[in-house]
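Hypothesis: this fold can be encoded by more than one sequence.
Test: take the structure tokens below, design a sequence, compare later.
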């Protein structure tokens, strides 16, 4: 076989289907020649053909010939091609998106390598198996194979890959929420990388340490190190995850402009790398930041993607639950087998054995019922969450449309009409007697003064100057003064050492809009004569209370009451709580609470 293999497969190795039309025929001729010469074992020939098809990305044919290699083995196990064939079958299954088959084939290859002393090849293979187990949601098995990989690489003094394996152990422990192990493995990864630089390990280890660090400033320093390593590496996978963590930390520190920049760059890298977990995380961050800035349409795009990806990630969680149940089942199965063996040894009677088997059947049925009920419950929760998030987005979009329509009407009915009148007056000016021109110019000046005042009023509503300069307390007092001048309702403002002006500008603007909407609701619906706005601090943080002496409201805060629902969701989006209740005596009480440092 060796001479046949060497003689006839070299031509196939060099055959390029883009330059020659005879490659497929060459494969058929090789097989025919081997059969004609009655070669007793064809595994190496079939393996060579399978390998050639893998290079052409024809995984169906590669898989077919690889299986033929297993069916025609060399009589001497040490000369067989099984190890390489299982690797090919694993690759084919992976590229065909069948993770379970891929893992099974790689495990079979590992079993062959385990028959000999530990080797670097086995250590690397264990790491590859761990990666696929992670993709399938089996975190516990992933940890098992990563530890086996690390043990071999450590024993053989590997310097090429051991730091990356240690950083993968840190990341997997992060997903299983074992913070102590995250720290241990991340520090090991960095220690290995000191002697033999590994940018993958450095970026991933610093990222993990940043995620578990409770001190925001230290977390930021670690995130910056992760970003620097990822930039030097230039790989979109690690750029996406490090930029996402940087955005998260900056957001917590209130540096929202920088956070938004990193979140949006993370989204670009995650899309390039098809990293859906990071894409989901960064979309949530970017969406919430755009909401705080009032960019509702962009926020809607990011949050819609977050919701969609969250649903797909939920399926991974279901897969993880299935794996846990399977593990539990296998453990119970082994325990039952031991129990049955003990019963045989002790020569228990048949009736007792039947009773135990009946109990086993009952446990299996109950386990199956539990699984399907839990699965249905999880799917239903995901559907309800999606409906809720869509309702939130719709309320934001509708609020934005209402604001656009209001501004459009004010510009069209007020400013545009007045500018039109001024234009017509100017056009008629040359035709008037000189003695009337001065009076006419005075009227035009009055029209333009009023128009200027209206434009300033519209601009003030978009971004009040007093809010930007002096903070939310003075802006609210100024707003109340304007309302009081209309005589529609008398509004008073009280600040009880709330320190609300210390919040970042985006939060102040959002809270100011909430107060405006609540006062507008009082004017439109409550028939109140008086309203009060109170800023204070309590154990829950910042406390803003808006009350009135109107007729009250008996409805619920849901998507049917879009104004109140929009307010509630805005407050929740920044980590706060909102309550709206009817007072015992008369009127309503609205309370917004926000946790602040």
């Amino acid at each position: 076989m060796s001479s046949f293999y060497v003689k006839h497969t070299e031509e196939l190795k060099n055959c390029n289907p883009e330059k020659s039309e005879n490659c497929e025929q060459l494969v058929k001729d090789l097989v025919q020649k081997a059969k004609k010469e009655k070669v007793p074992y064809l595994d190496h020939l079939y393996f060579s053909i399978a390998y050639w098809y893998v290079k052409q990305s024809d995984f169906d044919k590669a898989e077919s010939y690889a299986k033929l290699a297993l069916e025609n083995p060399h009589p001497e196990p040490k000369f067989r091609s099984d190890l390489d064939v299982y690797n090919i079958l694993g690759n084919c299954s992976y590229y065909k998106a069948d993770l379970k088959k891929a893992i099974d084939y790689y495990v079979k290859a590992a079993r062959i390598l385990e028959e000999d002393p530990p080797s670097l090849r086995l250590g690397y293979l264990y790491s590859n198996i761990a990666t696929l187990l992670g993709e399938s949601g089996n975190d516990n098995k992933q940890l098992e194979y990563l530890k086996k990989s690390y043990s071999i690489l450590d024993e053989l003094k590997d310097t090429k890959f051991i730091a990356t394996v240690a950083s993968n152990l840190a990341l997997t422990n992060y997903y299983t929420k074992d913070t102590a192990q995250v720290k241990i493995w991340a520090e090991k990864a960095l220690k290995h990388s000191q002697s033999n630089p590994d940018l993958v390990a450095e970026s991933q280890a610093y990222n993990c340490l940043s995620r578990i660090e409770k001190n925001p400033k230290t977390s930021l320093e670690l995130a910056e190190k992760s970003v620097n390593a990822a930039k030097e590496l230039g790989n979109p996978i690690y750029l996406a995850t490090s930029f996402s963590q940087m955005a998260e930390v900056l957001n917590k520190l209130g540096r929202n402009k920088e956070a938004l920049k990193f979140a949006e760059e993370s989204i670009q890298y995650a899309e390039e790398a098809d990293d859906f977990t990071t894409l989901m995380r960064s979309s949530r961050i970017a969406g919430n930041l755009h909401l705080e800035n009032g960019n509702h349409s962009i926020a809607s795009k990011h949050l819609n993607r977050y919701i969609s990806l969250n649903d797909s990630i939920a399926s991974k969680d279901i897969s993880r639950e299935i794996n846990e149940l399977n593990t539990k089942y296998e453990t119970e199965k082994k325990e039952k087998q031991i129990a049955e063996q003990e019963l045989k040894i002790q020569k228990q009677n048949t009736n007792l054995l039947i009773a135990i088997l009946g109990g086993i059947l009952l446990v299996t049925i109950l386990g199956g019922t539990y699984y399907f009920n839990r699965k249905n419950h999880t799917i239903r929760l995901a559907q309800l969450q999606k409906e809720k998030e869509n309702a939130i987005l719709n309320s934001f979009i509708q609020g934005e449309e209402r604001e656009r329509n209001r501004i459009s009407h004010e510009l069209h009915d007020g400013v545009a009409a007045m500018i039109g009148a001024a234009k017509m007056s100017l056009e008629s000016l040359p035709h008037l007697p000189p003695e009337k021109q001065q009076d006419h110019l005075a009227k035009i000046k009055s029209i333009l003064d009023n128009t200027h005042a209206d434009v300033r009023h519209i601009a003030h509503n978009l971004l009040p100057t007093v809010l930007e300069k002096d903070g939310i307390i003075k802006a609210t007092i100024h707003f109340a003064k304007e309302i009081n001048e209309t005589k529609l309702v008398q509004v008073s403002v009280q600040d009880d050492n709330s320190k609300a002006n210390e919040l970042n500008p985006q939060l102040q603007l959002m809270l100011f809009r909430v107060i405006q909407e609540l006062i507008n609701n009082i004017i439109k619906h409550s028939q109140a004569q008086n309203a009060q706005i109170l800023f204070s601090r309590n154990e829950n943080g910042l406390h803003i209370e808006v009350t009135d002496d109107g007729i009250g409201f008996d409805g619920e805060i849901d998507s049917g009451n879009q104004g109140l629902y929009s307010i509630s969701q805005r407050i929740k989006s920044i980590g706060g709580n909102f309550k709206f209740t009817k007072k015992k005596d008369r009127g309503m009480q609205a309370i917004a609470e926000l946790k602040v440092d």
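DSSP finds 22 helices and five strands in the chain. The radius of gyration is 35 Å.
Hypothesis status: open.
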